[in-house]
Amino acid sequence: MSELLKVEQVAKAMEGLGTVDAMKPNRIRVATTPAKVKEAVQRALKDLKCDHVVQIAAVDNGKSFELIYNLTGPHHTVVSILLELPRDKPEVPTASDLLPPAGLYERQIHDLLGIVFVGHPNLKRIILNEDWPENEFPMRKDWKPNPNTFYGGVHTEEAK
Amino acid sequence: MTLSQRLANWARMKSPWITLFNSGACNACDIEVIAALTPRFDVERFGILAKGSPRHADILIVTGPVTRKQAPRLRRIWEQMPEPKYVIAMGACGAFGGVFRGLYHVVDGVENVIPVDVFVAGCPPRPDEVINAVVACLGLLKEDLARGGKEWRAKKTKVIERVEAKEGAQPAPAKPSEAST
After folding, report:
1. Per the CB 3.0–4.6 Å rule, which of A1, A44, B161, B170 could disulfide with A74?
2. 0.80 exceeded by the pTM?
């Protein structure tokens, strides 16, 4: 299994899920939709032997959110599953039941960008401090700190 | 001053025990502090020993900006230290937040959480500057013992504030009269 995956192989496996193109010989991109992402991850897992999640990248491009699932396996080809989420309803089905390590990345993305992974068993706070206010997502492009809100840490009166 | 107090003060001057706390540093300051403890710089000639527990330490070295997650923990660790205790804030981040100043997850400098006695400049400061800061803390300790506490340093700033307030209050009533004439 040391040979790289070919675009045709990936295109055949991902039939009906979206467009497939190769950015580099070892990097193949699959652009899909939120509804079909679970099917795409499952097919990558079963048909393409992508058993390892490198990372899930999340981007706020100002208009919408983008998620990129980078999966790889013994063939050393990175299969990137791209999808775009609307800003007003950022919900996507979780991949943590198929790939348990994805759950950690999903918790992190939920913490910083407020994307809801439907069906995640434990979508708790992981990276921000415990006393961070609810419904504030610091990695969103339109987020601004409110001067009247206490964002955690030590109260200044207490320190002095 | 009783004999036991004099003995304790003498021992404190001869051997300050330090503890290191990373409040969100990038690890460069920690490496420099650890380098200062190595035989090359040989801090034991000043009797300086690194201790694992803040309850045994006289001097707390805080490295890095204080993240919101670490701020309550830093405060709790500082509260656990026995008096007289001294705090050294390492580097640009410890002084005012450094490159992390104003970010969503930091409360900037160490002084926003605990009172700091000595600031060390640099990014990161060299090990000999760390030793210099510890020796400066010993100078402060000696002065504090002679003056019977840390208040003489705190008072100084308070007096300046009062003088400024008085000066601010005096010209205020004079201004309308100037405008009227």
Report:
1. A1
2. no
